[in-house]
Specification:
Length: 136
Amino acid sequence: MPKIYKPGKVAVVLQGRFAGKKVVVIKQYDEGTREHPFPHAIVAGIEREPRKVTKGMGAKKLAQRSKVKPFVKAFNYHHLLPTRYALELEGLKGTVSPETLREPSQKEDAKKVVKKLFEERYASGKSRYFFQALRF
């Protein structure tokens, strides 16, 4: 079976609390691990997308509406749908690891770093597809 979920691949979550949300694969485990004995991927996703901004908005309102709420989680491959899009993982690879997901304080720190990286990427105007909510 070919590897579909490579690092940087954008996918959509199909089931669970984050159903319909977009994620980017950080690390994949095709054989599984001791904690998760099934094929899974460690992902960082967007729980709440940035809201629409217009030209007439001030800097304060623009900053408020450009916020992103991320999440970091391990997902079974059966709960993900790959897309044709990819995202560069400049700072994400070292931030999130299986050890990070075990400890709650480390997970919160990782989410803060992911939030900063996602907001920088959104402000630069790259990867517009990733930061738009799915409409269906």
